[in-house]
Specification:
The complex is a heterodimer of chains A (about 260) and B (about 325). Chain A is an alpha/beta fold. In chain A, strand 4, helix 2 and strand 5 form a beta-alpha-beta unit. The radius of gyration of chain A is 21 Å and the shape is globular. In chain A, the strands form 2 sheets. Chain A has a 9-stranded mixed β-sheet with strand order 9-8-7-10-6-1-4-5-11, with helices on both faces. Chain A has a two-stranded antiparallel sheet with strand order 2-3. In chain B, helix 3 packs across helix 4. The chains are: A alpha/beta (about 260), B alpha/beta (about 325). Chains A and B meet through strand 2, helix 3, helix 4, strand 7 and strand 8 of A and helix 3, helix 4, strand 7, strand 9 and strand 10 of B.
Chain lengths: ~260, ~325
């Protein structure tokens, strides 16, 4: 039994940042990195299933990204995942989400898991795309924005909730294996234990290039993409009128505004 | 390739508002390109939706016969593929909603079509289709294009276009995808639990808290502050996910839209797209946040770049 969890390292911008020279991204010197918040929940869901199966279930974590991304894989291994896979080479730089999905699909085909989990979206680019694109490439059943899951490893069906808008949920049954995109709040992600962190250092992380997975140069990078970043920019936008002063002065002005508008 | 295809979204017997926003987006493009606008609506019995879709600029309405009325991603994807084959459109617009997320990205997988998501502005520049989306917590915008793709599929963010008032008399036809195999099945909808808690959609004055409050023990500070200033206490998603406040207090896409609110004080809320979907319409928004670049300041009328605890300390002295 095996569950594959695809994760992403996401970028947070510093308060001050500059664009890269080609104008197509932010200069990475102004970014710091962390695991995508949604992926903490996907991993936790896989670990809960693994534990409920009496550990007769392997959790494999896969990511697409350069060397720095291994940190996030190690954190997942520290929480209890069994193995990591990282795919990267220079030709993957500049790929869109369809290429990322194509790479993850190749890893799924190689690993043949019983379930694939991904986050609903990534905190930095928020495409909400990769998971369902992987499902289509595999031609597997799929469901997006999963907020509750009943699944026994190896079962041919699962029952789950999809979180819709406005607090509404939908209960569905789905054939397995399936690709699910996991929503925040489905569980309470654990922290890594000190012992887990020690063990993680010895767990295997395999590294592959796109050619190792049987992909060609035309499958990745700009040639393999279906969209292209023309330019990235800081837009002109309306800005709030700032209330300046000491906290006491700011609070006094805020109180005036409240009294004007709410008549309190 | 010519024409714009819009996939209507409906749930529990109602066409969802985002559908009309997509019609507006298509109308803007039509003014430039003169392309036809076709709306497709999928379901077992969609006759009830047809009249409400005779909106200004719509040239054709296609009823897509399916085995079920509820959303199912295999059926929706099969419908779009059948419609693309039939109509050969240059552009397909799908709502960037939970159901949209469930099937639109599967259409990008073939590599045949241009595809991107969550766009809020679409235009032609020298014949090239350009779609604008945002990244890095809305701090930057990105213009995307789709070189060499004759058909482009986009998911469009809710609230990006204003619905039109006018009507039209489109030609109505029907196709069927009723024999599409479906690998998942709707069981039931689960309505939000009824609570005795306050209904925040009725509140005129809200004070909402987000991640900036740091710890559960601080909820009390802001709960008392809300009482002191006469506001109803609300929150962003992380506070409800942590169980620090009930889900009924959550403002945003998966929570509530504060439709009666006239004054909204956002404390320690950076302003995710999902949160702003529930409150950006409020006329008077005041944001308190230590990050001067937080996107909440782009929709707020007034901003205070100060620690929320300092403001929480000082504000009661004025009441």
């Amino acid at each position: 039994m095996k569950i594959l969890v695809a994760i992403k390292q996401v970028a947070n911008l510093d308060d001050e940042f500059e664009m890269r020279e080609d104008g197509k991204d932010v200069d990475h010197d102004y970014c710091d990195y962390e695991i995508n918040e949604w992926d903490d929940y996907s991993l936790e869901e896989a670990l809960l299933i693994k534990e409920s199966a009496g550990d007769e279930c392997e959790v494999v974590v896969v990511t697409v990204g350069p060397d720095r991304v291994e940190d996030e894989l190690r954190k997942c291994l520290a929480k209890g995942a069994d193995r990591g896979i990282r795919v990267w080479d220079d030709s993957i730089e500049g790929s869109d989400q369809v290429v990322t999905a194509r790479i993850i699909t190749k890893v799924v085909e190689k690993e043949n898991p019983d379930m694939v989990f991904l986050g609903v979206q990534a905190a930095d680019h928020a495409f909400a795309q990769t998971g369902m694109t992987v499902a289509a490439m595999l031609d597997w059943p799929h469901a997006a924005v999963v907020s509750a899951l009943e699944y026994k490893p190896g079962a041919s069906k699962a029952v789950l909730h999809r979180e819709l808008e406005g607090g509404l949920e939908e209960e569905i049954s789905i054939e397995c294996p399936a690709v699910l995109s996991i929503q925040l709040g489905i569980n309470e992600p654990r922290y890594a234990s000190l012992r887990g962190i020690k063990l993680a250092a010895a767990k295997p992380v395999d590294e592959f290039s796109h050619t190792d997975l049987g992909l060609t140069d035309s499958d990745v990078g700009e040639p393999g993409s279906v969209s292209r970043i023309r330019k990235m920019y800081v837009p002109e936008r309306p800005k709030a009128e700032l209330i300046e002063g000491t906290p006491a002065e700011q609070a006094a002005r805020l109180a005036e505004i409240i009294q004007e508008i709410a008549g309190a | 390739m010519s024409g714009i295809l819009i996939m209507a979204e409906h749930r529990q017997g109602e066409v969802r508002a985002v559908t009309y926003e997509l019609i507006s987006a298509a109308n803007e493009l039509k003014q430039d390109s003169g392309e036809d606008i076709t709306i497709a609506v999928i379901g077992n019995d969609v006759d009830g939706y047809i009249d409400s879709l005779r909106v200004e600029g719509v040239d054709k309405l296609i009823k897509v016969k399916a085995a079920t009325d509820t959303f199912q991603p295999d059926i929706y994807a099969a419908a779009v593929n059948a419609l693309i084959e039939k109509l050969q459109p240059s552009l397909v617009l799908i709502p960037h909603t939970v159901d949209g997320w469930g099937y639109a990205p599967t259409l990008g997988a073939s590599g045949q079509y241009g595809f991107t998501t969550d766009v809020f502005s679409i235009r032609y520049e020298s014949g090239d289709l350009i779609a604008t989306r945002a990244a890095y917590k809305e701090k930057v915008f990105i213009d995307m294009d789709f070189p060499g793709k004759e058909t482009v599929i986009l998911t469009v963010r809710s609230g990006s276009y204003k619905p039109l008032e006018g009507t039209s008399s489109p030609e109505v036809s029907e196709i069927s995808v009723a024999d599409t195999p479906a690998h998942s099945e709707h069981i039931r909808y689960i309505e939000p639990e009824a609570t005795n808690d306050v209904d925040i959609t009725q509140a005129e004055f809200m004070l909402s808290i987000g991640r900036g409050i740091d710890e559960e023990s601080n909820v009390e500070v802001f709960s008392e502050l809300a009482d002191t200033v006469g506001a109803t206490l609300g929150c962003s998603r992380p506070i409800a996910d942590n169980g620090w406040l009930p889900k009924s207090r959550q403002v945003g896409q998966s929570g509530k839209t504060v439709s009666s609110c006239k004054l909204y004080i956002a404390m320690g809320i950076s302003g995710s797209v999902q949160h702003m979907a529930g409150m950006k319409h409020v006329e008077n928004i005041i944001a308190v946040n230590t990050d001067p670049e937080a996107s909440i300041f782009n929709i707020a009328k007034y901003g205070i770049v100060t620690d929320i605890f300092d403001i929480a300390d000082e504000l009661p002295n004025n009441f």
